[in-house]
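Record filed below.
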Amino acid sequence: MQIRVAITSPDGEAERAPEFSKAELSIGRLPSNDVVLPEAGVSSNHARVLVTGATLTILDLDSTNGTFVNGEAVQGPRVLVDDDEVQIGDFVLRFALLGRAREVDLAGRPAASNGRASAPAGGGWGGGADAGGLPPPPPMMDELDELPEPHFGLGARDGIGGDDLDAPELAVRRAPTAMVGGARRAEVPRSEPPRPAAFPRFEAVVAARSAGPVGFEFTPASAPELIEQVFTAVWQRIADEVLLAVGGVAQTAAALLDEALQRAGEPLRAQAAALRARMLDEMVGPGPLRAVLDGEPNEVLVHGIERVRVQRAGQVSEGPSGFTCAAALRCFASRCLGLHYDPSVPHVRGQWGPWAVEAMWGAGVPLVISLRRSVLQGTATLEGLQHAGVMSPGMAALLSTCAVARYGMLVVAAPGASARHVLAAALAAGSPQELQVVVTHRGTELSGFRPGTVAVARSGQHDAIDAALALAPDRLAIDDLQWSEARGALAVIGRAIGVVVGMRGHSPAAGLARLGQLLGGELPGVVLEPLVAQAFDLVIGVQLFADGISRVTQIAEAYAHEGRAVVQDIFTLVPGTRSWQVSATAPRCHEELARRGFRLDPAIFT
């Protein structure tokens, strides 16, 4: 069989329709991919297309901007049918599996014979040499923020070639652009996945399972070991159909369980009916954690089949997990993440509706699954943070006005806390027509930032801040400031753009002190603290709370006093409460904003 790909370039013309004699295609920006799409909105390794029986299945490889089929985001394996349009960046692709009874000519042009989508004369997009590499070792927990784009159990290669490790990587968060008759339709905001009723479902069309007995053989063992064998044997036969949400899979699973439990014999005969109901629920139903998740906890930690730890509004409780066996827990992880369990990949992360899911396993240790509820879905806004209890209404009003006035802001996140939602909300307060750029780590998702935000990834030999400034942005955010970027961040404050910088520190005062330390090696002999204090108009402190939410605990003004950088509080969180208080000292920014014509209700400071 051959796969034909019709690629429509951003200008709306069908350039080529190459054919590939292989069972798997890689799609991305790097030349090592089979289908190369050299556009900023395409990730290095963006998606894969697999031959699955008589159909083609596409998977998004955790790309920055997502993969869309007919305008709908791909959130797991998605089977393609004739005339489906796959949107990656500004490219539109259509696939056909040749060698079947019905073949579709997608572009009406001769196909390329070199087995790759090679570039037209004079440049464009095309194939290149394979430069795959071994995956990096498993990360430590404190390195999770810098993870590259993961590839889960699909034989995916990193595909980094040439100087790409050193080149600044650009990514744009954008909504898909539908193409109709060669004309571009107006962009619409990309919808966020709704909270699933039980597990994500993916549209799929696969060959029907042949009827008749399957034939199970089990090794004589104790009842718990035999339960493990039965579950594993049945799940292996239906895993693909469950992950693809094929219609009728529940009936298939029930029939297989009946046959397997009968085959297991006397050790399980007395509990066969109860086991059948529990296993069927774990394979194709809501599962044993449904009642827990319906209670909308902040975090659920499943530690093997022994216990589950639930945290809700700061209260913690523990109990048995309710899974029948270890195979059932692996099944739950596969269904949440939309992928097959792969023991060679010890740590996997994904998003399941409102839950950030992490699964960790290893030899001799139980599978651990963590589900954390996201504070916000979609684009972060100051109003949304206020409603989520991250900040007070007065704080949101102040930050909104200061963001419009293009104040320089330093957001200091304490250990364990995340400041990205504050960075994203501060940028979102600007005009929709602005070009907004974020300097961040390679492979970091742009979730929370509004569509149209451009990400510049850090690299080994290129200054990411310089690369960002070369784009002439109206606003710039620097996520998790690095040692080598301190001087560049200080210099960019003086430009006529709005700048928001995120860094680590226990408090706003500690963040200013640390920034001075970072600059110590860059500017020897210079009095640093007054320089640092004058660089930022506002300093914002963020801390992690027991309910899993990172809240703004302090907003202060920085100024120099007797050669030292100090802060004067404007808002602070009242210890032991979820309310904020206003400082008795009127902030300098209020009078300055009024002189510049920015209206700010003085009541927020009373």
Remarks:
- The chain has three domains: 1-110, 193-374, 382-605.
- The domain at 382-605 is CATH 3.40.50.300 (Rossmann fold).
